[in-house]
Design a protein that fits this description.
alpha+beta; Beta-Lactamase; 2 domains; five-stranded antiparallel β-sheet; 5 strands
C-alpha cells in the first residue's frame, strides 16, 4: 500500500506528460510489466479511430517493435485492440494466446500474434478505460517481462490487480489533465491567444484591439493555428486545442 501511496503522491506533483509516463513505466516494471503502450483518441467513428496524427500514444517499447506494430498498422488487427474497442475493464492476454492455439485466428490476426511472439510480447494485460463519449477510446497494454508466462501474469494480477487498476486509471486521468501535442501540431503563444479570444466569443475586430494587431494579422494567426491543428474551421481549431489542453494554460 505504501508503494501505491508514493505513486499517487508523485502523480499529484508531476506536471508534464513525459515525467508522468516515466514514473508510471518505472512503477509498472516493479510489478513485472516492463513494456507499455497507452493509446487515446477523441475522434473515433463507427469505421475509424480517427487520424493517427491526433492519437495520444505513449510507449516504452523498442523502436524495432513500434515501427512495425504501430508504424505498419498491425495494432488494428490485434485481438486485444479489438477487445479494448468493444469492452471496458481489464482482460488477461490468455484470450489471444488461446486464440493462437485454437487455430481459429484469421491470417491477419495470426500475423500480428506471430510478430508479438517474435518480439517476446507474449503475456500481459490490457485495460480499456471507461469513456463518457462514443468518440473517445483509451486503453493501455501492459506487457510482462520476457521469461514470464501468462500464468505468471495472471498470478501477479490476482495479487495486485486492484492496485494496478487504480494506478493505471490515475495515469489516464492525469494525462488528460495535461497539455499533450506532437511538436509539429503545437501552437505558438500568439496562435493560442487568438483562439482563446475566439473561444471567449470575441469578434475579429475585438481581438485586433485587445491584442494590438490588425484584423489581417489576427486572421493570419488563426489560419496558422488551423494549419497547425490540421482542421478546416476556426471552430474546429478551438475545439481541438481545448481537447489537447493547449488553451487557457498557465505559462511556466
Amino acid at each position: 500500500m505504501t508503494r501505491a501511496l508514493d505513486y499517487l503522491d508523485q502523480m499529484l506533483q508531476t506536471q508534464s506528460v513525459e515525467e508522468v509516463w516515466e514514473n508510471h513505466c518505472r512503477m509498472m516494471e516493479s510489478f513485472g510489466f516492463d513494456r507499455l503502450i497507452y493509446g487515446f483518441t477523441r475522434y473515433r467513428t463507427p469505421n475509424s479511430l480517427g487520424d493517427p496524427e491526433d492519437f495520444i500514444v505513449l510507449t516504452n517499447h523498442s523502436k524495432a517493435y513500434t515501427d512495425v506494430y504501430m508504424g505498419q498498422g498491425l495494432y488494428l488487427n490485434a485481438p486485444m485492440t479489438k477487445w479494448a474497442l468493444a469492452n471496458e475493464g481489464a482482460s488477461s492476454w490468455r484470450v489471444w494466446t488461446d486464440l493462437l492455439r485454437s487455430g481459429d485466428a484469421s491470417e491477419t490476426t495470426r500475423k500480428v500474434m506471430n510478430f508479438n511472439v517474435s518480439m517476446q510480447v507474449v503475456a500481459g494485460y490490457t485495460i480499456s478505460f471507461k469513456s463518457r463519449s462514443e468518440r473517445i477510446k483509451c486503453a493501455i497494454a501492459l506487457t510482462a517481462k520476457p521469461g514470464l508466462t501468462q500464468d505468471d501474469a495472471d498470478r501477479i494480477w490476482a495479487t495486485h490487480g486492484q492496485e494496478l487498476m487504480v494506478m493505471n486509471t490515475v495515469l489516464h486521468l492525469k494525462i488528460q489533465s495535461l497539455p499533450y501535442f506532437t511538436p509539429h501540431r503545437s501552437l505558438t503563444k500568439r496562435q493560442r491567444e487568438t483562439l482563446q479570444w475566439v473561444g471567449d466569443g470575441k469578434t475579429m475586430q475585438d481581438i485586433a484591439i485587445l491584442m494590438g494587431l490588425t484584423p489581417a494579422t489576427v486572421e493570419k494567426h488563426l489560419r496558422l493555428a488551423r494549419e497547425a491543428l490540421n482542421v478546416e474551421t476556426t471552430a474546429q481549431a478551438v475545439l481541438k486545442a481545448a481537447f489537447q489542453n493547449q488553451m487557457f494554460i498557465m505559462e511556466v
